[in-house]
Amino acid sequence: MALMLIMLLLLIFMLPFSISAAEDAFIGVNIGTDLSDMPTPTETVALLKAQSIQHVRLFDADRALLLALANTGIRVTISVPNDQILGIGQSNATAANWVSRNVIAHVPATNITSIAVGSEVLTTLSNAAPILVSAMKFIHSALVAANLDGQIKVSTPHSSSIILDSFPPSQAFFNRTWNPVMVPLLNFLQSTGSYLMFNVYPYYDYQQSNGVIPLDYALFRPLPPNKEAVDSNTLLHYTNVFDAVVDAAYFAMSDLNFTNIPIVVTESGWPSKGDSSESDATIDNANTYNSNLIRHVLNNTGTPKHPGIAVSTFIYELYNEDLRSGEVSEKNWGLFYADGEPVYTLHLAGAGVIFANDTTNQTFCVTKSNADTKMLQAALDWACGPGKVDCSPLLQGQPCYEPDNVVAHAAYAFNAYYQKMAKSPGTCDFKGVAVITTTDPSHGSCVFPGSHGKNRTRINGTSLAPSNSTSSGCLSQHNYNGGYFTNSMILIVLLLSAVVM
């Protein structure tokens, strides 16, 4: 019996290590500062608290912001900027001074939990790559000397572009040019109980795929089984780009014989605005991606390779950074404007307590895309007539007159009726030309009934453009024919579930 126990123990120790599922995943937010009107640290922390954000990543170790974060309990990742890596990587004393100034001076009041040494160093600062691991080790040694290594992990964020042949994920491997760096780097992460920091941007994968990657696959939208991507080597099914890229990183580590290092996604998101070449950088797509990402992460779904294993993720980013150079999209990754107003309202039903701007229960009734314009006109006439909706804001010169077309005017009237009827089931149908949404359709000075009046989401001009056969939606041209719709429309029941756009 004793011999069998010994053999069993030996077998257990000979098995490859596996990644622990000990803790739940979290959602955090990156805080960039390239804003012409950057909020004060106090204002930023107030926004974080109001939105129930408990994890943030800074791209430096800004003293004022670290002081403002003191005694909030918010878990903070600070960063060694790329331009400081050369100095720190060549001097243990320089690293110790950095830790003393930026860490020891702030803990325990400020809850610093990790240090990101640089950002995408291998792909953006190749001359610092040879001393990257040294910089990480020197920072870690200073934490050990201060007895903080148990509380604060050290890692470095990588671009997903360091992985070659990323699909199918099972064939993925790191660019072997960087093996002299990656092998000791992964050894360091494993020996210190840290994690691989990884930046995952399905937006760019989608943009660069030349139509190979479907938009729905990038946005976490549900796919029919025959549209899912299948890894022919493992037969694992992938329903979104995010999981496929994360699993590619797991397989790339396995290629170097590292199987027990967890992954934290340090950047992921979707831009809400782009130039003419970035037609899919829209508010709706940004809302869809980030809402679905948050739900996916907080549900502890894991990935096909590691189901149920936490993939904690930091959204890029808190604010739109108007001073960033490059394409229009570079300035529009934020969840909020500089004044703290949301760029859009996230759809987070069932995703747990995070982001107070989740107004999933704040619903609106708007026109369905591609609805028949004659039916819209008839429904608009009914709402403003027998439906007894106050359509005066649609009159010329009034706040909701523009854009002057039946689609826009019908959206206002449909929503006014829906709100007036206390959002009762069936009151947003109008013979099939209306649909419920959680995106506030208010625009400019036109505030839709039911709105808190703070959402800056604009109505998409394209979707509100009248067809060639549509007459103006101006109120003076409406004929209030009460016979077109009957009260039978209220009997239609809409079953509302968690929104997945």
In DSSP terms (H or I, runs of 4 or more residues), the helix count works out at: 14
In the CATH hierarchy, the architecture of the domain at 19-53 and 156-331 is Alpha-Beta Barrel
Elements, N to C (H/E): HEHEHEHHEHHEEEEHEHHEEHEHEEHHE
- At the third CATH level, what is the topology name of the domain at 19-53 and 156-331? TIM Barrel
CATH class of the domain at 19-53 and 156-331: Alpha Beta
Ends: how far apart? 59 Å
Total beta strand runs: 15
User: Which stretches are poorly predicted, pLDDT < 50 over at least 5 residues?
Assistant: 1-17, 454-501
User: Beta-strand percentage?
Assistant: 5-15%
Biggest sheet overview: 9 strands, parallel
Helical content (DSSP H or I, runs of 4+): 25-40%
CATH homologous superfamily heading of the domain at 19-53 and 156-331? Glycosidases
Mean pLDDT: 83
| Gross morphology | globular
Look at the helices and sheets and give the structural class. alpha/beta
CA radius of gyration is 26 Å
Sheet with most strands: strand arrangement: 5-4-3-2-1-13-12-9-6
